[in-house]
Design goal:
Elements (H helix, E strand, L loop, with lengths): L4 H5 L4 H12 L5 E3 L1 H7 L10 E4 L3 H7 L3 E5 L4 E5 L5 E6 L1 E3 L11 E3 L3 H6 L9 E3 L4 E3 L4 H7 L1 E2 L5 H7 L2 H13 L2 E2 L1 H9 L1 H4 L4 H12 L4 H11 L1 H5 L1 H4 L3 H13 L7 H9 L4 H10 L4 H13 L14 H11 L4 H13 L6 H20 L13 H8 L5 H16 L6 H14 L3
Parallel strand pairs: 2-5, 10-11
Antiparallel strand pairs: 1-2, 1-8, 3-4, 4-5, 6-7, 8-9
Helix pairs in contact: 7-9, 8-11, 8-12, 12-15, 15-16, 15-20, 16-18, 17-18, 19-21, 20-21, 23-24
Bound molecules: adenosine-5'-triphosphate and magnesium ion (MG).
Length: 437
Amino acid sequence: MPLPAPLRRAAFPDAVLGVLTRLAAKGHRSYVVGGAVRDLLLSRPRSPLDFDLATPATPQQVMALFPRVIPTGIDHGTVTILLQDELKVEVTTFRGEGAYTDGRRPGSVTFHTDLEADLARRDFTVNAMAFDPLARELVDPFGGQRDLRGELLRAVGDARLRFAEDGLRPLRAVRFAGQLGFQLHPATRDAIRGALPVVRQVSRERMAEELGRLAVSRDVARAFGLLGSTGLLEVLAPPLAALPPARLRHLGVMAASIDGEPPDLPLRLAALFHAAPVAGIEALLSSLRFPRRLSAEVAALAARHSCLREGEPEDPVSPPVVRRWLAGVGPGRAQPLLSLREAEVAALPAARRPKAALAARRLRERCEAALASGAPLDTGALKLDGRGLMALLACPPGPQVGEGLRHLLDLVLDQPELNTPEELAAAARAWWAARPA
Ligand code: ATP
Ligand code: MG
């Protein structure tokens, strides 16, 4: 079979070729495997640092051939070869797997000299190809190229058995569907529901990692839809799984409409999760072991994006209301929140879109004007600081200092022209005098 054009043209990193050449010279014909072969065939860009190699040499044989090798996952046959200029190449010995006992890792691994056995343990046909760039030979025993052409993710072998072995695989299937814009092969898709108990055994950290990668994928709407239709959402985010399908579709479409290179993770998560009760979002993300700061940021974004809806009393929104909102969200978050709101408008039914789009555009203009005007939006921008306030009122440090500054900010949010040392001093004295003793 002639070699597909993308592989014929492919340039392999020197580090990869060097390692393959050295292994081959010792009689260990080795291969580039998995995602790198898939991405090359799809002409998708891939970092030259992310090429996985598979070899029939044992980890000990690999370690003996290269001066600097870290035994990164030696129990599973993986070592990392360190090369010049901080370059690293990961090499894994061909292996088969014993029985899975914990729904995540095989109880034992056996090393092989048989490439096909190694490819057979891989998750999807498009990930189960190997290429030898020296001999220019592609090994594709499970129809990986056929499925790349058909844009299909299909489990290698019987999907039900493969998912029962490892509960991470259904999550990977859906994440790859989002990243590649592929469909799930029907048998692969239908096997997910029966595997949900095994998916529940996956660590929350791994779930979060897959969810995060899915959230920033190019076809997040498709992937999120699949989470809903396969039942995976019941495992990842029960409060969302209860939403009607149309609402779920809307969330996915919203998230997809927020692009950016790379897409903004907090904003994408806020789009996907903002239909859950706000108090629930932070708890949900924290339970998935997302970093606390990220969970809080997503919850804040979700809570605030809808604060300035059209039809509220202040429509068109008055400048003080805009400044108050900016102060509340923090000026740095204004842009992403406006984008989220615009995404929501874009996802509205066509009949309601023009009016909402006009309101959103007006809001953006007003926010941008408020930001550009230099009007003070946080206590740090006041022309009187905490030290000045204490000197002026002859008061000791304590909670009253923060209270006083917030009071002053409150004033200047309404009337930015009051932000002068004299005006603020007068206002501070009045506030202090009126304060209950
Ligand atoms: P990415 O571009 O996201 O890194 P990848 O295909 O390189 O995608 P990895 O998670 O880096 O994915 O794994 C490398 C290869 O190992 C995969 O292509 C696949 O062949 C195999 N693999 C990874 N995880 C599993 C798994 N849970 N079950 C079976 N095979 C797996
Ligand atoms: Mg990889």
